[in-house]
Amino acid sequence: MEKEALPMHGGQRRARSSGRRSWTLLLVGLTLFAFGVHIQLNPWRGQRSVTIPLHAEHTIARCENLKLKPGPPPTFNERKQSDRFVPGTRPTLIKNATIWTGHVKGLDIVKGDVLLDQGLIKAYGKVDQNVLDKFEGKVDVLDVKGAWVSPGIVDLHSHLGVDSSPELRGASDGNSIKGTIQPWLRSLDGLNTHDDAYHLSISGGVTTALVLPGSANGIGGQAFTIKLRDTAERSPTSKLLEPPFTINGTHIDLSLPPRWRQMKHACGENPSRVYGSTRMDTVWAFRQGYNKARLIKESQDAYCEKALNNEWTGLGEFPEDLQWEALVDVLRGRVKVQVHCYETVDLDDIVRLTNEFQFPIAAFHHAHETYLVPDLLKQAYEHPPAAALFATNARYKREAYRGSEFAPRILADNDIKVVMKSDHPVLNSRYLLYEAQQAHYYGLPANLALAAVTTTSAEVMGMDHRIGYIKEGYDADVVVWDSHPLALGATPTQVFIDGIAQLKAPHTVTKPKSFQKLPETPNFDKEAADALKYEGLPPLAPNKSKGNMVVFTNVKTMYRRDHEGVQETLLSSSTELGVVVVRDGNVICSGLEASCASSVSGYESVEYVDLQGGAISPGLVSFGAPLGLEEISGEASTNDGYVFDPLVGGIPSILGGETAIIRAVDGLQYATRDAYLAYRAGVTTGITSPTSAYLLSGLSTAFSLGAAHKLEKGAILQDTAALHVSVHHSRSVGPSVSTQIATLRRMLLEQRDGEAGKWWKAVSEGSVTLVIDVHSVDIISTLLILKKEVEAQTGNLLKMTLTGATEAHILAKEIAAANVGVVYVPSRPFPTDWQRRRILPGPPLSKDSAISYLLAHNVTVGIGIEEIWSARNTRFDAAWAALEAYGEISRSQALALASSNLEKLLGVDVEIEKGDLVATAYGDLLDFGSKVVGIISPRTARVDLFLM
Ligand SMILES: *[C@@H]1O[C@H](CO)[C@@H](O)[C@H](O)[C@H]1NC(C)=O
Ligand SMILES: *[C@@H]1O[C@H](CO)[C@@H](O)[C@H](O)[C@H]1NC(C)=O
Ligand SMILES: *[C@@H]1O[C@H](CO)[C@@H](O)[C@H](O)[C@H]1NC(C)=O
Ligand SMILES: *[C@@H]1O[C@H](CO)[C@@H](O)[C@H](O)[C@H]1NC(C)=O
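A: This is the predicted complex of the input protein with 2-acetamido-2-deoxy-beta-D-glucopyranose.
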C-alpha cells in the first residue's frame, strides 16, 4: 500500500474474502481504492482467521511512531546544506571576529573567522585554508576588525505578523474570541507578511521568533517558529522553521521522529477577563479540555497495543479527532507548551494541571512571580519550566505588581532557565537584546544574559539543534555587533539569516572603545534579597541622610544646569578625584579635596559617600506617561481616571461645562512604586497632564517623585505648567481630525468665559505653553498653519510644543522655523499605528535617528515615555539617544534631553540653583555600570541616600 497522507483518518475495514472494496479516507480529501488481504493465522488451530486490514503496515508504523521523541532526524547533523538555503547565496567569510559561541554555558569566546556557506556555519575560529581555497575566491569577505559576533537573537515570545504594525484592525489576528480552549487554532493561519516590524527587528539582530497566539484564551492555539527574513516565495509558509509535519499534509515519513510543535496557553487575568469568568472557570476549562485529550490518547494507546500485537479483530478505526489531535500531542510530550502565567496562584494551578494530566511545559511566560516560587516550578511534571521574562516592564496589572528586575538573577540562582522575551509588539523586539542587557545590569551573569536571548530561547523552543549557537553545521544566523552585545545600545553592523546578509547598506556608529568590553555592573545583592524578603514589594521610600552635611568623595565629573542647559565640569585632576560638599541639600563646595577642606571643618557629623569615580548630575524629568496619576495601569481603582471630553459626551454642567478645566495636580498620588523606582534611578521630577482619551486634557503639573505625600515640603514643583491637548486619528468613532482642529481654532481665537477661557486666553497671548500630543506629519503641518493663523490674528507668538511627534523629522526644518519644540515619545520610535508609520529608525537602517535629526535642525528636543514602568529607564534612553548620534550629542546634551529641555518645553520654571542633583557611583548617570546612590535636593534642603 502506498504511503498515506497525514494519517488522521486511516480507515480500517474488515475486508471479506470476496475481495470487497475497502475505503481509505485521507485527510487531504482523496479516496483510494484498495483490496484487503486475508491471512490465516494459527492454521494449526483450524477455524479462526483474522483479517489484517489494508492499512496494517501503516498503522503499525504510526503506532511505533507515537513512541518516538520529537527532534531532528538522526542524520540531521550530517547535513551539508540547509533546508532553507537559497540557491545563489554566495559564501561569506566573516574575518577577525570575537565570537560569543554559546558553548560552555555561554562562557566560550573564540577569536577568529566564521565561514558561512549553503545556509550553514561551515567553520569558525581558525578556518582551514584548504576549505577557503575550494571557493576559488568566490567568497564574500567581511573583515569585522575584532568586532563581537554572536548567534542571531531568538525571540521565544513574539506576535510578529499576528499583531502587525502599523496596527490596523484588518491585521489583528492574535486572539480568537470564540472559546477558552482552542488547541486547534494556528498562528500561522493569520501570519501577515507585510508587518513593518520584520525588517526593524532584524536590524536589532533578531533572526528567529516563535509567533504565539495571544493570551485571550486558556489555550489560544498552536504557535510557529519563523525566520524573519524575506523569502522569494513571499508566503507565510516559506518563513517557517522546521514546521511540524502536520502542517503540510503529505509525505510524512513515519520512521522519523516528529518535529516539535508549539502551543500557547494562558492563565490568570487575560483568559478570565475576556470571557467574563474567573480563574476557577478557566482552570476547569483546561481540565475539561485535557480530559477530552486524555480519553482520546488512552483509546489510541489501547488501539496501538492491540495493533502492535496483531490483534486486529474488531479493532475498528484509529481513534482520533482533528480538533483535539494537537492537545493529544501535548500529552504525548511532543509539544513545547508556552504558558502565559504570572502569579503564584496561576503557576500553582498549572503545575497541578501538568501533574494531573502528565505533560511537561516548556516555559512560563511573563512569569512575574516565578522568582518567588522556584520550588513550585520544580514540582512541574517531568522538568521545571523555563521562565521567559521582561527585564523591567512590570506593575501594569495585579499579576505583574510584584514583578522584580532581580527575577532573572534569582531564578538563575535557583537553576531555573531564564529567557528574556519581547512579547512583540508589547516590547519592540528590535530591542530584545536590551532586555538581556538590563537583566545583566541587575545581576544576571553575562553568560546567562546572552544565552537568555540565544541558546536558552532556542533550547526552550526545541530548535537548539540548529540555531542559538555559533557551531559547525548550524544555521548561518549570525550577528556582527558594533560593541559588546551587553553594552547599552549594542547595534548590529550586519545580520545574516540563512547565510544571507540582511542589511543592505548599514549605517554604522563607532562606539567608544570601552564599549567593546563587558560592562561592569553594580552590586544589587541587598536589593535582590529584599525583593524576596518582602515578596516583591520591598520598601522603596528614600532614606534621608543622618546629618545635614554630606560629602561625596572620589567624584570625577559634575554636570550642572545653567541658562543654556547642562554644563559639564571635571572635578578631578590627573592624579586625584574631586569632592562635592553638600550642606542642607545645597552644594557649598566642589573641586579637589584641599580646596573644599574649609567648608567641612568644624562639622561634627559629616556623612561621607565614596562615589568611586562617579558623578553628580541634574535630576532627570519624566514626561509622557501618567506617572503620579496611576499606580497599576490596568486597575481603574488605582488610577486618577479619564477627564470628560466636550467632543464626546460633554462636560457636566455642575463642573462648569465648557468653562471647566482640569488640573493634574488635583489627582496626584505619591509614593507609587513606579515613582519611587524612577527616583532611585535618578528621575526626580514628574511632569504629568490629566489623562484624556480624546482632544482636551488639561493643565499639567510638575511634582517630586521622591515625596511621600502632597503636603510634604517640595512635593509640588509647579502646580500648573502647560495646557495639554492631543490630536490623533481616532481608532473608531471618535471625533474627526478636522473636528478637533476646528475646536482648537475656536479655543484659540474666540474669547470665552470662565476658568477655561482664562487659560486659553493665556495660551493665545503666548504666556502659557500649548502642548499638543500628535504623531502624524499631516496633522503637524495643520497645526503649524493654525499657529501662524492665530499669531496673525492676535499679533502674539504662541508657545507650542509637540509631544509624541513620531513623524516630526519629516518637517524638522519647518518645525524649527516655527519655533516649536518637540518631546519625542518614545525615544526610540516604532510604527505602532498608521499615523506614526513613517519613522526614522536610526542606525543601522538610517544614518540619523529622529532625535539627532531634529537637533541638527535646531529643534529643541526632549524625550519621554509611554508607560509609567519605564520612567526608571530614562537615563538609559538618554544615553542611547547620544550613542546613536555619532558623537553629535554630548553627555551634557543627552542629560538636557531628559531634564532642562523637558522643563523648558513643558512650561516648567525651575530656579537653576534649586534643581535636584543625582549622585552616581562608578560612573555618571548615563553610564550603564553606574548606580544612583543619592539625591541632593536644595528645594527641600535634604539629601536622600541609597545603598551603594
Ligand atoms: C583584528 O582587528 C584588530 C582591530 O582592528 C587588529 O588590531 C588586529 O590586528 C586584527 N587581527 C587580525 C588577525 O587581523
Ligand atoms: C509542503 O509540501 C509540498 C509538496 O510536497 C512541498 O513542496 C513543500 O516543501 C512543503 N512545505 C513545507 C513547509 O514543508
Ligand atoms: C542651527 O544653528 C546653528 C547655530 O546657530 C547654525 O549654525 C546652523 O546653521 C543651524 N542649522 C540649521 C539646519 O538651521
Ligand atoms: C533605608 O534604610 C534601611 C535601614 O538602614 C535599609 O534597610 C533600607 O534599604 C534603606 N532604604 C533605601 C531606600 O535605601
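The two ends are 75 Å apart (CA to CA). The pocket of 2-acetamido-2-deoxy-beta-D-glucopyranose (ligand 3) is lined by residues 857-858 (CB under 6 Å).
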